Amino acid sequence: MTFDGKSRRVRERVALNLPVRVLCREASDHEWVEMSRLIDVTPFGARFPISHPTEPGRLLHLTMPMPRQLRCFDHVEDTYRVWALVRNLRSVPPVGNQVMRFEVGVAFIGKRPPTSYENEPNKRYEIARSAAESSVWKLQEDADLMVSNLPSSDQRIDTRHNIPINVTMQVIDQNGAIASTENTVTENISRRGAAVMTTINVPDGRFVRLSSDQYGIAVLSAVRGRRVGSDGVLRLHLEFIDRDWPLGGED
């Protein structure tokens, strides 16, 4: 592999099938590690598949034999260790009993994580406006200047419509496998989220896959809150992660 900084655009993706170790701390008492391989990479980000569910805004720690000419620091080390922010992902539906797969796009944010990460490893972030608007993407030793906090509560961007839709909810465990399945109905729904009646108490921050034969769609969703209605039935408040729900006629 050759990379000529003078002849290539700075952000051009380079196809590299290199091994990468991915670590994610989802909570203070839980983390997962997975080995994967890069699909492509730039000095400022990468793309690779994983079997564990994640979402935009989560932090991942990557360890890989990155070519030195693509690094922003640690040029003399054998391996490159960098913190990365999940920017987007695409879920691949499982076949049979296989675990789900997710293709993740990340932005490198620094050699060390934000200060708040140590006490709140499940905190979500976004690229700071100052970094996004800069003409030069400059990785810092510490990531505090690169990111800002995302709200952790259920933020309803779109109007929820009180539409009962028959759906199948699959709860994804911490290894990316389907732990349980339930046929249920939505209480309300928008393009980017829904409240779903359920008998399964899924903790905040965990992931479910919501699918509908009527709409011909399956959406990776994160649990943002829970509520028991006046009828005694639990509702999960979900945010759709990898695509919008196709509600016809909605602006």
What does it look like?
The chain has 251 residues and is mostly beta strands. Helix content is 2%, strand content 47%. The protein contains 1 helix and 17 strands. The chain has one helix spanning 129-132; strands spanning 14-15, 19-27, 30-37, 40-42, 45-50, 59-64, 80-92, 101-112, 125-127, 140-142, 147-149, 166-172, 178-189, 193-198, 207-212, 217-228, 234-240. Strands 1, 2, 3, 4, 5, 6, 7, 8 and 10 form a 9-stranded mixed beta sheet that branches. Strands 12-13-14-17-16-15 form a 6-stranded antiparallel barrel. β4 and β5 (45-50) form a beta hairpin.
Give short descriptive properties of this protein.
single chain, 251 residues, mainly beta, 9-stranded mixed β-sheet, 1 helix
Short description:
With 251 residues, the protein is mostly beta strands. Helix content is 2%, strand content 47%. The radius of gyration is 19 Å and the shape is elongated.
